[in-house]
Amino acid sequence: MLSGIVIVKNEEKQIIACIKSLSFCDEIIVVDNSSTDNTKTLVLAQGVKYLSSDIIGDFAALRNIGAQEAKGEWLLYIDADERISDALRANIKHELYTPSCSSYFLKRRDHFMGRTLENGEVSKVFHTGLVRLMKKGTGSWEGKIHEKWKTDEPIGELDGFIEHYPHQTLHEFLEHINRYSTYRAAELSTKRMKTNIFELVFYPLGKFVYTYFVKRGYMDGAAGFVYSFIMSFHSFLVRAKLYMSSN
Q1: Which strand (E) or helix (H) includes residue 86?
Q2: 124 and 184 part of one domain
Q3: 3-state secondary structure 9-65
Q4: I need a labelling partner for 95 at 20 to 30 A (CA). Which of 25, 51, 199, 216 fits?
Q5: Model pTM above 0.90
Q6: Per 3-state DSSP, what percentage of the chain is helix, strand, and coil (rounded to 5)?
Q7: Helical (H) or strand (E) element with 5
Q8: What is the span of the domain harbouring residue 236?
Q9: Of 54, 56, 45, which is closest to residue 19 (Cα–Cα)?
Q10: Statement: residue 218 has pLDDT above 80
Q11: What's the average model confidence in pLDDT over 135-141?
């Protein structure tokens, strides 16, 4: 049995298409992180399992809640702005007949400003992927913001892509990085980490140079530049908020 799990917050524009993308799963669970829009009504109308949590800024905890409530032996995680491609769906179903591993990397293809990104900030998820398919009980999610699946067992990989449609407007992108930079700064503060003016200035600059030039974000045209620039600005916001909270 396969359980599809989605973590959401104010995703009324995306959630229906996301749920339909998981229609091949035996069970679909939506973990709602205190949405204030119409997300809950839309989810319940689809007849899938709905859970609500007011945990703020701890995405590993939210993913683990989904795992605890799942009835399936296997868990498949996607976000509301992601879809399972036909090729990946077929490969997941085929692999789970006779699985060779207990968890799998699934590649992700980002679509941004009318372009498919393959380089820069997203090059790792495009070429290697993220661990999003796993057997229940073989590991757990760790890390509040940049959550990762932790397991002692070998991790396989499957062909096919998760299709990702993030930040369809610049306004949404800036809202996203503002919110997540607050969460990340708070996480670093709880670990008693500090920053300084030198890091505040040069870390974001170094990140842009690395993602845009070294990781070849420039190969993705204007979309690659915008993505690299805004994610570098995200790094600046994290350190600026951390600096302000510790001074």
Answers
A1: helix 86-95
A2: no
A3: CCCCCCHHHHHHHCCCCCEEEEEECCCCCCHHHHHHHCCCEEEECCCCCCHHHHHHH
A4: 51
A5: yes
A6: 45, 25, 30
A7: strand 2-8
A8: 170-245
A9: 45
A10: yes
A11: 98
Burial class (CB in 10 A: 0-12, 13-18, 19+), 240: middle
Residue 189's H or E segment, with its range, is helix 170-190
| HSE (side-chain half, CA atoms, 13 Å) at 25 | 29
pLDDT band with cut points at 50, 70 and 90 for residue 101: very high
Rounded-to-integer distance, Cα 26 and Cα 152, Å: 27
- 44 and 143 part of one domain: yes
Residues 184 and 103 in one domain: no
Rounded CA-CA distance 86/180 in Å is 31
Q: Which of 124, 123, 125, 133 is nearest to 155 (CA)?
A: 133
First to last CA, the chain: 52
* CA 239 – CA 37 distance, rounded (Å): 31
Residues 156 and 216 in one domain: no
- Assigned token pair, 62: 């939210």
Query: At which of 118, 147, 164 does a domain end?
Result: 164
Tokens 């036909």 sit on residue: 86
Q: Name the nearest CA neighbour of 64 among 130, 19, 5.
A: 5
